[in-house]
Amino acid sequence: DNPSVWKNDVKLVFEDYLIKLLPEIVEWSEQPVREYIRSNVVEKVVRKDLPEIFENVNSSLLMNLLEIFYSEPGTILNLDSLSSNLKVSKKTLIEHINYLENSYLIRVVRNLRSSLLVASRKLRKVYPYHWSLIYSLFNREEVETGKFYECVVSLLDAKYYWRDGDKEIDFIIGKLPIEVKALRKVYDWN
Questions:
Q1: What's the count of helices (H) and strands (E) in the chain, helices before strands?
Q2: Using CA atoms, how far apart are residues 52 and 54, in angstroms rounded to an integer?
Q3: Neighbours of 178 (CB within 10 A)
Q4: Within 13 Å and on the Cβ side, how many CA atoms surround 180?
Q5: Are 100 and 66 within 8 A, CB to CB?
Q6: 122-162 pLDDT tens trace
Q7: What pTM, to 2 d.p., does this model score?
Q8: Measuring CA to CA, which residue among 142, 160, 161 is closest to residue 70?
């Protein structure tokens, strides 16, 4: 009935909750949790599950992509630049991004425009499917707090964000705009 009664208790465990979502790891310290998520979730999918299902899976490429996407949640996907930097064909890159998306390791959010065809091709952003996956590759201090909070997209099932020039809304769900901030005070665009 009165959430403020529990506010301080929640603050004490909130940071741990962010990385210890599985019941079997709640009592563990941070390093074993990171290793567990990395080996039993991320690496299992990348090195075992995907190669068993699909032909020509490049596990090293998948891990490189995850490092890029997890280090900068909300990265705008530039296929030309990424394929050039990783020295792989654009077709191979698209296939491997699809593998990651279909295995629930990443989520792609599209820029909302008047045409869904345009929205699906331009300025897509990539997020970890769940924020705890970031900790499989990076320490808490290595990911910007605001970017980390944007990973709530996996819980919201947002498919779109909106950008026009230098103005942006993090997520659009139906007609509801959602802006995610790590600040206590939200700014006014006016």
A1: 10, 6
A2: 6
A3: 15
A4: 20
A5: yes
A6: 789 999 998 889 888 887 777 777 777 788 777 788 889 98
A7: 0.84
A8: 142
